[in-house]
UniProtKB/TrEMBL annotation:
Protein name: Pyridine nucleotide-disulfide oxidoreductase
Pfam families found in the cross-reference section: FAD_binding_3
Species annotation: Proteobacteria bacterium 228
Molecular function via GO: FAD binding; monooxygenase activity
Sorted UniProt keywords: Monooxygenase, Oxidoreductase
Keyword Oxidoreductase among UniProt keywords: yes
PANTHER family documented for this protein: 5-METHYLPHENAZINE-1-CARBOXYLATE 1-MONOOXYGENASE, MONOOXYGENASE
InterPro entries assigned: FAD-bd (IPR002938), FAD-dep_Monooxygenase_BioMet (IPR050493), FAD/NAD-bd_sf (IPR036188)
Length: 428
């Protein structure tokens, strides 16, 4: 049986451990922080990723901590509707789409790893500092100053680097990959306790990227206060801001953004009030890393954000990591040579995910708001069909969904593939 070391115990690393355990392995996880806490804000879990969670045997637990997505609607900065589509089962997918607090998702996976592999499978407070590999295995070194009881060195047959956007494993394998790509855009990510918006399962995409920036709103927890209110996640993109630290946990106030969307009249949502009532707000520079030319190097490979850090547009980052986890577990279980198994895992995944990295850099499906802004001259319109036909919007969403691995099940040929030129720039 292979001795597998996973570096990182975020959602991706924990999911990898669970998938490997399903294939008969008993991996060990090593995490930098001394205590795992439910940090972060919201994540959008697409139907193909809900499938992965279901196959892990965790759907009921996941359903209990998340909110079902019912519809996704795009609006201009004035509050005029551009395009809407159903989500998950409501669109005909076999699995639903759900919104969840990232920290709650991580703790759910953490609990499952402890129950299935044992608490001893995870070593906290130990930061990977480097490794060397030879023909028989990998020697991994740790800074264990935060946990002197943890080992300073281990041996493993293979190592999977799942240590996030600032991956030490990636930097050792590909030193040139440390160069990040800053978009010039800063994200403000907050949560507010408030009454449900529309049907309580809506994700709103609001604003324009030229005049005021953009806003995404969706619920991540039902009845959070016992009075029927939801915990609502919101993300604002603002351009021309200085680059800050590449850290998801920089807490800030909301004064800079509370009046940005005062021109947007939705009728069912007071955006300014939602922002001012935020329970917490975090700052993060919109950063990704250039697509990697290689993930697997002998007995060491990369997975999740360490392999394909992407802008959080289109909601595919953690979802793709869950697919990575299943794929690597299947390859290691069916290919006797672990080096070859890691190569096959990379062959299955890298090219597909690199397309999403670049498509997300080019706005992903959010590009429809830019199209409308440019064609309308930044002014309200009388009829959206005159400037952005539904058929064209459907073609854009159909292409993106298919590339992400979730072709629209109810889609017919009436969208005329090829009639509209692709808007996703993948050569940047």
């Amino acid at each position: 049986m292979l001795d597998i070391a996973i570096i990182g115990a975020g959602p991706a690393g924990l999911a990898t451990a669970l998938r490997l355990h399903q294939q008969g392995f008993r991996p060990r996880l090593f995490e930098t922080v001394s205590e795992l806490k439910p940090l972060g804000v919201g994540v959008d879990i697409k139907p193909y990723a809900v499938k992965e969670i279901t196959e892990m045997g965790l759907y009921d637990a996941f359903r209990a901590i998340s909110v079902e997505a019912k519809e996704s609607v795009f609006y201009t900065g004035y509050g005029q509707e551009i395009f809407g589509e159903k989500c998950g089962r409501h669109m005909g997918y076999e699995y639903d789409q759900r919104f969840v607090h990232r920290g709650h998702l991580q703790m759910m996976l953490y609990k499952a790893v402890q129950e299935r592999l044992g608490a001893e499978a995870i070593t906290l407070g130990t930061r990977c500092t480097g490794f060397e590999q030879d023909a028989d295995g990998v020697t991994v070194h740790f800074d264990n100053s935060a946990n002197p009881a943890a080992p300073a060195t281990i041996r493993a047959d293979i190592v999977i680097g799942v240590d996030g956007i600032r991956s030490v494993v990636r930097s050792k394998l590909l030193p040139e990959s440390s160069r990040s790509h800053f978009s010039g855009i800063t994200l403000y990510r907050g949560v507010t306790v408030m009454p449900p918006v529309r049907e309580g399962g809506t994700i709103l995409h609001i604003g324009d990227p030229i005049r005021q920036g953009t806003l995404i709103v969706y619920p991540i927890q039902d009845n959070v206060d016992g009075q029927g209110n939801q915990l609502v996640n919101w993300v604002i993109e603002q351009g021309e801001k200085p680059q800050s630290e590449e850290d998801w946990n920089q807490e800030v106030g909301v004064k800079e953004i509370e009046h940005v969307f005062d021109d947007c009249q939705l009728g069912f949502l007071d955006i300014g009030e939602m922002i001012r009532n935020a329970r917490e707000c975090y700052l993060f520079p919109l950063i990704d890393h250039d697509p990697l030319p290689q993930w697997s190097f002998g007995r060491v490979t990369l997975l999740g954000d360490a392999a394909h850090a992407m802008y959080p547009r289109g909601g595919n980052s953690v979802c793709q990591a869950f697919v990575d986890a299943r794929t690597i577990a299947e390859r290691l279980a069916t290919i006797a040579d672990p080096v070859e198994a890691l190569k096959q895992y990379e062959n299955d995944r890298r090219e597909k995910v690199n397309w999403l990295v670049l498509a997300s850099r080019g706005e992903g499906p959010e590009v429809v708001r830019r199209i409308v802004e440019e064609r309308s001259g930044g002014k309200p319109f009388d009829d959206i069909e005159d400037i952005f036909p539904h058929e064209e919007a459907l073609a854009i969403f159909s292409e993106y969904h298919a590339k992400a691995g979730m072709k629209i099940p109810t889609e017919k040929d009436s969208s005329q593939p090829g009639k509209y030129k692709s808007v996703f720039a993948v050569n940047q």
